[in-house]
Prior knowledge:
The structure holds 2 protein chains of 2 kinds. By secondary structure, chain A is mostly helical. Chain A contains 6 helices and 1 strand.
Amino acid sequence: MTKLSSLISGIIFGFGLTVSGMVNPQKVLGFLNIFDEWDPSLGFVMVGAILIFSPLHFIFKRKFRPFFTQSFIIPSKEDIDKNLILGSSIFGIGWGLVGFCPGPAISAISFININVYIFVLLMFVGFYLGNFFLLKK
Amino acid sequence: MNIINFTPLPAMTGGFLIGFAVFLFYIFNGRLAGVSSIASDSILIGSNRIDNLLFLLGLIIGPIFYSLSGNEIESVLTNSLPLIIIGGLLVGVGTKIANGCTSGHGVCGISRFSIRSITATISFIFTGIITILIFGIK
């Protein structure tokens, strides 16, 4: 059953990304371009998603268990470490260069564009390299 | 600073949908829908592999449903190959090391009031802004 809920969640997520315009790198870059011509849309997307998920997840966490699994899996780390800042900063540079973060990049696979495929491929290579870096530490 | 191309209504609507999708994944699978983690786990970790791949497949199908409902999708990506290669690598390496991206830290983490995620989100928005300030929009 988790297979079905994974697929449906993914579809709604991808649909939401498309409705919001975030599958267009130009809109993402517009959000980061605050000193010139600013497009605040991405901020509204994040706020919209948080407004829905935050209250619902707090209510749910207290009263229920997940329908198809034993328990909620929540990251246990709470401290701010070097990797968090380093990784996020590196991610932000790539994000600012191209305007894709992982979600929209994967959704964009549906637009037949070789450059999207190259980006996604290199992103997966990046996951490998990042994992290698974490294991070496 | 001028405000241009601002589309508050589609942005908020899309955001609600994303929040709802994250909520569904949470209550059914008990997991947080951070896309970078789901994507990197799908190649690096064996557990939940089918779930992860199906979620990613859903992400790809989402825009197709949107097109089928008669809507145009606008998406303009740079043509610069070096930029795409460097950008893809940095996004992959960075989100892996930080253990999250715009969805994992920006949506799920902030929703849980996680200090780590708030810090991560401020960091990647900050370096994103600086990157555009230096290189401009390509």
